Amino acid sequence: MTVMEQRGAYRPSPPPAWQPRTDPAPLLPDAEPYRVLGTEAAGKADPDLLRRLYAQLVRGRRYNTQATALTKQGRLAVYPSSTGQEACEVAAALVLEERDWLFPSYRDTLAVVARGVDPVETLTLLRGDWHNGYDPHAHRVAPLSTPLATQLPHAVGLAHAARLKGDDVVALAMVGDGGTSEGDFHEALNFAAVWQAPVVFLVQNNGFAISVPLAKQTAAPSLAHKAVGYGMPGRLVDGNDAAAVHEVLGDAVRHARAGGGPTLVEAVTYRIEAHTNADDATRYRGDAEVEAWRAHDPIRLLEQELTTRGLLDEPGVEAARQDAEEMAADLRERMNQEPELDPMALFDHVYAETTAQLREQRALLRAELEAEQERNDAQEGGAR
Amino acid sequence: MTVMEQRGAYRPSPPPAWQPRTDPAPLLPDAEPYRVLGTEAAGKADPDLLRRLYAQLVRGRRYNTQATALTKQGRLAVYPSSTGQEACEVAAALVLEERDWLFPSYRDTLAVVARGVDPVETLTLLRGDWHNGYDPHAHRVAPLSTPLATQLPHAVGLAHAARLKGDDVVALAMVGDGGTSEGDFHEALNFAAVWQAPVVFLVQNNGFAISVPLAKQTAAPSLAHKAVGYGMPGRLVDGNDAAAVHEVLGDAVRHARAGGGPTLVEAVTYRIEAHTNADDATRYRGDAEVEAWRAHDPIRLLEQELTTRGLLDEPGVEAARQDAEEMAADLRERMNQEPELDPMALFDHVYAETTAQLREQRALLRAELEAEQERNDAQEGGAR
Amino acid sequence: MTTVAVKPATMAQALTRAMRDAMAADPTVHVLGEDVGTLGGVFRVTDGLAKEFGEDRCTDTPLAEAGILGTAVGMAMYGLRPVVEMQFDAFAYPAFEQLISHVSRMRNRTRGRMPLPITVRVPYGGGIGGVEHHSDSSEAYYMATPGLHVVTPATVADAYGLLREAIASDDPVVFLEPKRLYWSKDTWDPEHPADVEPIGRAVVRRTGRDATLITYGPSVPVCLEAAEAAQAEGWDLEVVDLRSLVPFDDETVCAAVRRTGRAVVVHEATGFGGPGGEIAARITERCFHHLEAPVLRVAGFDIPYPPPMLERHHLPGVDRILDAVARLQWEAEG
Amino acid sequence: MTTVAVKPATMAQALTRAMRDAMAADPTVHVLGEDVGTLGGVFRVTDGLAKEFGEDRCTDTPLAEAGILGTAVGMAMYGLRPVVEMQFDAFAYPAFEQLISHVSRMRNRTRGRMPLPITVRVPYGGGIGGVEHHSDSSEAYYMATPGLHVVTPATVADAYGLLREAIASDDPVVFLEPKRLYWSKDTWDPEHPADVEPIGRAVVRRTGRDATLITYGPSVPVCLEAAEAAQAEGWDLEVVDLRSLVPFDDETVCAAVRRTGRAVVVHEATGFGGPGGEIAARITERCFHHLEAPVLRVAGFDIPYPPPMLERHHLPGVDRILDAVARLQWEAEG
Ligand SMILES: Cc1ncc(C[n+]2csc(CCOP(=O)(O)OP(=O)(O)O)c2C)c(N)n1
Ligand SMILES: Cc1ncc(C[n+]2csc(CCOP(=O)(O)OP(=O)(O)O)c2C)c(N)n1
Ligand SMILES: [Mg+2]
Ligand SMILES: [Mg+2]
Question: Are both D103 and D217 inside the same structural domain?
Fold first, then answer.
């Protein structure tokens, strides 16, 4: 038998049948951000929900201006404002059940407050008396995350653990447009999809990562298009339309709770203020763009819808304003009090049980502070 | 003016026009892996190219079996075979121009050899006499990368640099299905798309990351679908069809060279051997699957096409086999020689200029080796 | 410490048994990592766990170390006790940010409200002929990170006992497994894990009068061998196995050094910036007037880990240890 | 070293000038990082570079540190000299794998054929009231990694000179910029960079007879202040500014310690596993019989970096340094 004959006995066959692991079509986002306010869909929205959203938006805006004011008074080390993004912040909080978990980034203090955490405790990180002020378990809110996108795998792990335990808990994780470029974003979404973890990823695309505009961040058709690469649905929504954000997130949360797995939601919005009070936005963007977005203000959008439909009147507006003022006054007053500081606390929670090393260092600091106290007392004594 | 009237003066407008940054439709991969061999498309394929591919595939298979044999003889510390994946390996090498760059992973020694690097120098890492054997600049081949996906940003940076310098150089980077889960994969593809860097990403989806099957690695419709999330085209190709892989990669290389930016290519293939000689594949997969893929062997596929079309006859097959045997004999012989080892080299390339510290340590080792030598000489002297 | 001899087992087997027993005792213990399920890990240390406890308890993850550790953080937040396997030392580096910025700090950040009882198992060190990136000794990175415990066994009994303790700890523990001791064998009684000293205690493996070798993990057997060889040269060496780099057992170490007045720290990690500097410095701070000579270090050279065929020149061996002992200024003594 | 006084400038300005001059002199120098272009960096250290040299030379990257350093590796492979900015110390951690597994090893891996002349600028340290993750002193991680140079200026002139040298170096340099010295001012002559000592040399900033303070970066001014204050207590202190942690200048340091017989190492990084251990250990190895007391360390506590309102308790200050000097066993002297 010749070589060719030998080979002829072998008939290569087609590859084992290939099929897409999932149908990509339903995963792709709509061609335009989904909107409710000012569209026909608004008619189907629950009036009560719209009113609750409105009250929270007004509070949220006031919270933002108050916190920014506190930076000027030196009461906060830094504040990244979510002015203009209140619809996302508020909807993210309101869409969750009590048993669900929220994973905020540093910009999302408003979502944390809207979820019910004490605003003063929420601002602890940014005031600088400790790294985190609230008990994460009390309200099921993870600490505000500063390293970008690192909170996303946490949300996935928590949601996965809840599912393993048989609890129908959903985790909602927030991240910025810039944060989507980090490897952690990728790894988190992939784990979530493979594990079918009940988690919702909310990307607030506010146009900028500090000074870097979206065009330098990604070439994707939209950030929501990233979803298909993980095998999860991507949704695109007008991030200034509170009703739309609430609806899209609500769908995603229900989907996740029902065992349908994760969703990626991109909310298109805009950061009206500078990155933080320490930033100078005039270095990288013009007024015209800001003004165009001011004209699409999330509060005004909802206000118009509500008034047009007769769901809000002047006293209603006034009541919301009043409520927000009270919140602000309370916040102002409490933030104007000096926080209680205990330097010894530096050693208390490094480990479950302190080490011999840390005991030594604790003693050193204690002795220093006592000596300082003595010197101060002596000086005061001298002065007296 | 009442509050409502004041507010009435403000008319919220739609958001600044939203549009996808790129049209997603052309970025999506075909519904099935692209095939040439055994289809009508084969008629258009260049006979010379097919013959060249065939000769290289036969060499490649022989190279794989020879290298595996060398592990059994203790001449290689470890060998990750690309048996079954030769079409991808060979096409990746042949599709590039001399001035282009290849970024291989540890499994891609065959692509490196097919690009013209001395097989012995290529195997240095796996023999264990040094971490890399060849001069990367001589053949424009980066060192084999062991940490998964870390070579991808390198390829992007190099391609970007070439473009900045005005050189029409393309970088082709290889990675496995498992490697696509790493954050570096994500960051590399994103940078490439934003910078429109002339780089082609070739994912060899061989079904497994060591023991972990694709289904535990991703829920995506296909790995090629990830492309759309970066705003680059994704292509899906039968990785055992050398003509198809060459064509798809060729298109991507030309596209990149012409300034069209990066492409993600997923080649669907199969790892016929265990992960490496040290792995036991029976722990995680059955024979049936392997056999199904053996029946779709890249060499036989091409052989059938060539013989059917009268482009290959018995002497041609024999010549290819002969050529491969010579390569194998040469490799065997040269790998059976002990590599020259110079322990002092450990200190030579840590820094451009050595440090006082390293000089001390070098002296220490030299003294130890001299003492060892003396002891050995003394023993030999005693024995004589 | 009494170790009841029962039957010989390898260190790898003891580690497997530790996870198995921990999983059986506590349903919140979950193992995750690359290839830990069906395959049982590339070193087979998780062999059988997926079969016994199911894939939800011992899970093959996607291939992404930051993702593995990051999701483990979330699992721990929800009350689980994840045991994470990093496949090799150098492949833990992608998870560095999660480890430093979150795992080590979450308890402190939340004033104790959100502890993270995570065990990160890292096969480490050389001597197994591994190609590049498979032989790093990365303990200096972990030691420099407050909030982590850093533990490494050198005996089969310790492998079991320390891993059980690590998993039970309410703090994150980086558990460094000396690769080249995986196949070391010893008799050991899994029924008496309490016979093992707790995390945070060093153990004197050999008493001696002349000088003290301070070491851990893969270098413990080497130091014991060196101590035997030293007899021939007339030195009686004490050998301390640190077991736990964090917390560090100053008491045991300093007592051993004070007894002998001379000390050499031995480890595979590079010398410069490696663990030995810290160890030598703290011994000197505490035992200065007991020292007849400076504390010396025998460590890996200050170079990237060598290729397999050259690694023997890099690793601290008996001769290099004895040379260091010889440099402990014996003349000055009399 | 003569520094011709020309006009006062801040350290940040000197750094900008160094990059500007390097870019003007060498077209292969490229700056990249987050916000380095249009904004000029969050500390404005790259201010004006994009405008002067175009966005291709000073590039705002996507937000991904591993991607930034990883692409810089590729750029260096093609003959460019990337200068990478990491926005803050803790945000360099995502790039750790690229740094350790590639940047530090590529030259060695390729036997010198593929050097990577990359400068990684990392603003580091505390004292600026930064919230969590904005004040880390991460130098111990870099020191423990062979193949990297680790450099940190403490003066305006050094900021310019060392950065020029780092960029010109054919090796990767981790260039640590003390955040709280960014706005420190000094007269300094950019026309005479050669007046600056090269990388690898420590400099005695103040001579003294009684004890030597060994320090670097942000702690240099603190040590100089402490030395002034010590005069009042009757101690004449020498202050050594290391400038370069890798390579380490044993010669200058040991000469200074031998002169005084007593030494304290001062840095912000945590003590345990921090740079001070290495420094104290190597001094002791080399100067044992010149030491009247053990080399002591004044360092950050072994805790995660504190929140802004408590950081003053953590940072080594004048009092804590003087307390350490007082513990240098002066009684034993006479
Ligand atoms: C890992 C990491 N890198 C860098 C930073 C510094 N940083 C803080 S905010 C920011 C921009 C974030 O942009 P985006 O994700 O869009 O969120 P936004 O601020 O717009 O809400 C950067 C670069 C960080 N916090 N973490
Ligand atoms: C960062 C990193 N993590 C883990 C490993 C260990 N490892 C080596 S190969 C491999 C599987 C890779 O699978 P894939 O990417 O599909 O490539 P293949 O081996 O199939 O070619 C793993 C986990 C590694 N090399 N690098
Ligand atoms: Mg943003
Ligand atoms: Mg694979």
Answer: no
Is residue A213 lining ligand 1, measured as CB closer than 6 Å?
A: no
ipTM of the complex in this document:
0.97
Q: Which residues contact B204 (CB under 8 A, 6 or more apart)?
A: B85, B88, B107, B174, B175, B176, B177, B239, B267, B269
Tell me the chain B residues in contact with residue C276 when contact means C-beta distances shorter than 8 Å.
Answer: none
Q: Indicate whether residue B177 lines ligand 2 (CB < 6 A).
A: yes
Please answer yes or no on whether C309 and B126 come within 8 Å at the CB atom: no
Subunits with 3+ C-beta pairs closer than 8 A to A: B, C, D
**pLDDT tens across A258-282, in order?**
999 999 999 999 999 999 999 999 9
Closest Cα in chain B to A21: B221
Distance CA C180, CA C194 (A): 26
Residue C135 lies in a domain: yes
Cα A328 to chain center, whole Å?
Answer: 21
Phi, psi angles (nearest 5°) of residue C173: -125, 125
Q: Is the CB of A185 under 6 A from ligand 1?
A: no
C152 with C246, same domain?
A: no
Alpha-carbon distance of C267 to C245, in angstroms, equals: 12
Domain that holds residue C17: 11-186
Would you mind telling me the total number of residues written for chain C in this entry? 334
- List the single residue in B with minimal CA-CA distance to D79: B161
Q: Please check whether residues C319 and C233 belong to one and the same domain.
A: yes
> In Å, how far is D123's CA from the nearest CA of chain B?
23
Final residue before a domain boundary, out of D159, D186, D213: D186
- The last residue of one of the domains, among C134, C156, C186, is C186
Query: Is B2's pLDDT higher than 60?
Result: no
Low-confidence spans in chain C with pLDDT less than 70: 1-6, 193-194, 332-334
- Tally of structural domains, chain D: 2
Asked if the Cβ–Cβ distance from C98 to A153 is below 8 Å, we say yes
Q: Sorting pLDDT into bands at 50, 70 and 90, what band is B23? A: confident
The tens digit of pLDDT for each residue in B286-325 reads 999 999 999 999 999 999 999 999 999 999 999 999 999 9
Q: Please give the average per-residue pLDDT across B118-145, as a whole number.
A: 98
- Residues 6+ away with beta carbon under 8 Å from C107: A349, A350, A351, A352, C114, C115, C116, C147, C171
Same-domain check for residues D176 and D53: yes
B271 Cβ inside 6 Å of ligand 2 = yes
Edge-to-edge strand list for the sheet holding D296-300: D203-206, D237-241, D211-215, D263-270, D296-300
User: Do D159 and D248 share a domain, yes or no?
Assistant: no
Separation of A177 CA from ligand 3 center, angstroms?
5
D179, pLDDT greater than 90:
yes
* C34 lies in the same domain as C180: yes
Q: Count Cβ atoms below 10 Å from residue C260 Cβ, excluding itself.
A: 22
Q: Output the CA–CA distances (angstroms, integers) from residue D110 to A284, B135, B349, C96, C136, in the order listed.
A: 42, 7, 8, 26, 18
The preferred substitution site among A202, A210, A212, A223 for testing ligand 1, maximizing ligand atoms within 8 Å of CB, is: A210
Q: What is the pLDDT of residue C334?
A: 38
Domain membership flag for residue C120: yes
D17 and D166 within one domain: yes
Please give the mean pLDDT across all residues of chain D.
95
- Least Cα separation, residue B120 to chain C (angstroms): 16
Does the distance separating the beta carbons of A190 and B185 come in below 8 Å?
Answer: no
User: What does the pLDDT read at residue A7?
Assistant: 58
Binding site membership of C64 for ligand 2 (Cβ less than 6 Å): no
Nearest-by-Cβ selection for D146 from C100, C297, C302: C302
How high is the pLDDT of residue B383? 62
User: Which residues have CB less than 5 Å away from ligand 4 (the ion)?
Assistant: B 176-177, 206, 209
Number of other CB atoms surrounding residue A97 within 10 Å: 11
pLDDT in tens, A337-382: 999 999 999 999 999 999 999 999 999 999 999 999 999 999 887 6
